[in-house]
UniProtKB/TrEMBL annotation:
Residues 4-123 form the SnoaL-like domain. Pfam families: SnoaL_4 (PF13577). This is Polyketide cyclase. It comes from the Bacteria.
């Protein structure tokens, strides 16, 4: 499947919008990002996957002041599949109120809905070691 430039732009903006909405506390607008049955996979952080937009919203409210004050997304790569789904890989930086920061990888599945492109599955993986933990062979 080939994606039109307009679709690629819309998908990239969708992924970017996440940080703006969360950082602004606009959690009532998460339906603009996710399908109603989204799976938000946080198993790399020792948490069970969240199912549905309400679960994501509740988890963010529960985290409260421990949420990052800024989410930044970079290195967005969009790959179309023959089944109409789109895979999006991106990097995220989170800045905490105390100035510490962390890095994650987002692996998203994006689908076209009647309301536009939405994320139906997101896996968040912490970046904990250089070169992804790979060491030089031999």
């Amino acid at each position: 499947m080939s994606l039109a430039l307009e679709d690629r732009l819309a998908i990239t903006e969708l992924v970017s919008l996440h940080g703006h909405l969360v950082d602004d506390g606009s959690l009532d607008r998460l339906e603009e990002l996710f399908t109603p049955d989204v799976v938000y996979d946080l198993t790399d952080f020792g948490q069970a996957p969240l199912s549905g937009v309400a679960a994501i919203r509740d988890a963010a409210w529960a985290l409260g002041a421990a949420n990052p004050v800024a989410h930044h997304v970079t290195n967005v790569v969009v790959t179309a599949s023959p089944d109409g789904r789109v895979r999006v890989r991106s990097k995220g930086l989170g800045i905490k109120a105390d100035g510490t920061c962390g890095s994650v990888s987002y692996d998203d599945t994006v689908v076209r809905t009647a309301d536009g492109w939405r994320i139906s599955h997101r896996r968040v993986s912490a970046r904990r070691s250089p070169l992804g933990g790979v060491t030089k062979p031999g």
